[in-house]
Write a structure and sequence with these properties.
alpha+beta, three-stranded antiparallel beta sheet, 4 helices
Length: 104
């Protein structure tokens, strides 16, 4: 499901204009992104938690030449599914498989 699909479904469920639904979806995503950019953890009870993970700089190996390669520090987004979401995925395996693929 894309962002536009989500907005369309919200508009249909709540009997509102597509433009208003798009604004709501964009506002929520912007707040999650802004919170994470500030280093905060964003928790949506029952759905999940968005956070930032830091990977330290390290030395790796080039798989072809086996030569040492310097790998820079990384900041990565992380999502952990909440209890209600996890339980729903267990109850609905067909839909859950697609969601698990999306969420990684």
């Amino acid at each position: 499901m894309r962002q536009s699909d989500l907005a369309r479904r919200i508009a249909a469920q709540k009997h509102m204009s597509l433009r208003d639904a798009e604004k709501i979806v964009n506002a929520i995503l912007n707040e999650i992104t802004s919170g994470m950019a500030r280093g905060h953890r964003v928790e949506l009870r029952g759905f999940g938690t968005f956070s930032v993970r830091h990977r330290k700089a390290r030395t790796g190996l080039n798989p072809r030449t086996r030569a040492p390669v310097s790998i820079e520090e990384k900041v990565l987004p992380h999502f952990k599914a909440g209890k209600e979401l996890s339980e729903r995925l267990k109850r609905e395996p067909t839909q859950g498989a697609a969601l698990r693929e999306i969420l990684g």
